[in-house]
Amino acid sequence: MLLFTLRRLGVMLLTALALTFVVFFMTNLAPNLEKLAKSEASVRMSDEDVTLWLDRNGFTRPLLVRYGEWLGAVPGWTRTAEDGVITGRCIRNGLTAETAPRYCGVLQGDWGQSTVFKQPVTEILSRSLGATGWLMFWVMALMVPTSLILGVLSGMREGSRTDRVLSSFAIASTATPEYVSGVILIVLLGSATAGISPVLASWGWIEGKTLFQGTATSAMDKITFWNFALPVLTIALYGIGYIARMTRASMTEVMTQQYIRTARLKGVSFGQVIMRHALRNALIAPFTVIMLQFPWLLNGVVIVETLFNYKGFGWTLVQAAGNNDIQLLLGCSVVAVFVVLITQLISDIGYVFLNPRIRLS
Q1: Distance (Å) of CA 206 to CA 168, 190, 192, 199, 210
Q2: Which of 28, 109, 137, 222 has its CA 20 to 30 A from that of 129?
Q3: Domain presence at residue 202
Q4: Hey, is 113 helix, strand or coil?
Q5: Alpha-helical segments (H) within 256-292
Q6: Residue 130's Cα: distance from chain center in Å?
Q7: C-alpha dihedral over 320, 324, 326, 331, to 10 degrees?
Q8: 155 in Cβ contact with 250 (< 8 Å)
Q9: Residue span of the structural domain in which 315 resides
Q10: Considering the entire predicted model, what is its pTM?
Q11: 99-130 pLDDT, tens per residue?
Q12: Which DSSP state fits 193?
């Protein structure tokens, strides 16, 4: 297991380097750098002025060198002006050429400065990831138990009325993307002019104009059921259907195995057969699917956080992409790559523990 984990970590490191380099290359294309120069200096800059600005800020050197500097594996660039003033990548925040560190990249914890928010990237990401962390926590708390229960109940008796009803619900929720289900939930539960909120308000059953809040901005300060339920439910609905369908398929396959029939012939009750024999084997495949939901949640929060104006990781990523904030985009890419690779590693290790038939060679 130790050798397997070390090999996986080695592959993860190479994958992370490859993916971050691709993102670095895409964000440092010439049109993006020209747009950055004009947004930081002047929109009326000539092409010669843009070239001079890029040269003064170290953007005209080879791409691999700049990637190494951003990573922190290559010393940061320095430039001596005609008046003798020394500038460089690491010479900022009141530091001089003598006091500035030689390396200042991701490996040293220096992720750069956001050109939009005028704050260090690490501060922005820590705040946005904290907000998204709470969203993911409540989504998983709702999605995982609900989907497993639905999938097990559906797969226990294949072809029954319960199976057909739950399978139809799972297919419908999976087929509805977040930007559709989110709008539907807002109209039904968070609108003062449509849905059930006007009816409940006319009956005096609710104090405000809406049953739920159609925006989650107030949840940044204090999370309540009324301002957080709609974004959580919007993300969870899609995952519930997907995991439930996978659990049903796995449960259906397990229920046809010979050891299940043997246990029933021995007189073991149906409930004990499910809990002691079928459930653990049926959860092997859904476990992998559940772990892969974490990378998918990063995509889901981009839509949902923008729709509900919740300033988490997804909202930050949209702001960085829309405003050509290169440093913040690179920081978001590091977080996304890390989440994907770590969840893949946990999924592989957990699959080995759940399935004793897997052997590591």
Answers
A1: 33, 12, 12, 10, 8
A2: 28
A3: yes
A4: strand
A5: 258-265, 270-272, 279-282, 284-291
A6: 12
A7: 10
A8: yes
A9: 121-354
A10: 0.84
A11: 889 999 999 999 989 999 989 999 999 999 99
A12: S
